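Collaboration report, partner site 2.

Our partner group contributed sequences for two proteins of shared interest, and the home lab folded both. The records are reproduced in the order in which they were received, starting with the first partner submission.
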Amino acid sequence: MTDVPAAPAAPDAIEASAAPAAPAATEARAVPDAPDRAVRLLRRSALWAGLLFLPATLLGVVLALASESGTACVMRGTCGEVPGWLYAVTLAVAGGAWLRALTVPYGAPPTRARWAALWTLIGAELFFLGLVMAYFAG
């Protein structure tokens, strides 16, 4: 019996076994990074807080005018005394806080100052709504 050498492996089989398996593209970015998720959450929260400010103010005015003191304020002029500069300062603080909370750069986690700007925005809006209600309450 003569020894017959084994047939050499095909070149494609050698290349396929030597190359490492590449991870699938979906596995690489299946879960978004935590900073990006936090940035999106902060921006979305600030955007909704800012956009819902006008409807909340209009609802507050309608509810105030539906009350007896609100109607008396419009009909007889017995409205409360709230200085106009207080409205302007509250709106300026809310606007600055809104811009600060919305301008979070991608790639870096939002700082505590950005989260504080969001809560400052919400607080300034609630204070403004309180001023509006106090004006109509007389």
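Second partner submission, folded after the first:
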Amino acid sequence: MLIRYEDNYIDIPVNPEECPYDQEWFEENINKPEYNIWHRETRHLDNSYIGQSEEAQYKWDQVAGNAPSLEEMVSNKILEEDIHAWIDQVLDEYEKDLFLSVAYDRVCTPQEYASMHDLKAATVRKRLERVRTKMKKAVTQSPFSWLTSEEVSK
């Protein structure tokens, strides 16, 4: 498997049985230049920015402190895929579209969704309420049953 480091790739032998991801998935999800640029710009921050203004130091600290680790990025991506697969199993196609658009990804409000689909806003809110109820019932029987009822209702 090729791992990107700055502008070069390092070939690391990987047993396909131990790693369920192929090179294409790895390129799309991990080998991103954003992480490498961040690492190159921040790896010498231990004392190298002494003498800079307080504002510049604060900005560098924010960049270094808020950037997710590679492990966090991979873990979040896998969790996101698992959640979407579970939603596919639980909801019908129109329910999934409504839930993802309005509640999960928050692409639009219930009113905007209603106008895009020639529905009343009250109808969209009621359908969304039914979808949430359906998901609350299903979540107790799923791999995500460790979620508390407060987290499910968010």
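Feedback sent to the partner group on the second submission included the following. Helices lie at 23-29, 33-42, 54-66, 70-90, 93-104, 110-116, 121-139, 149-152. The CA atoms of residues 2 and 58 lie 35 Å apart.
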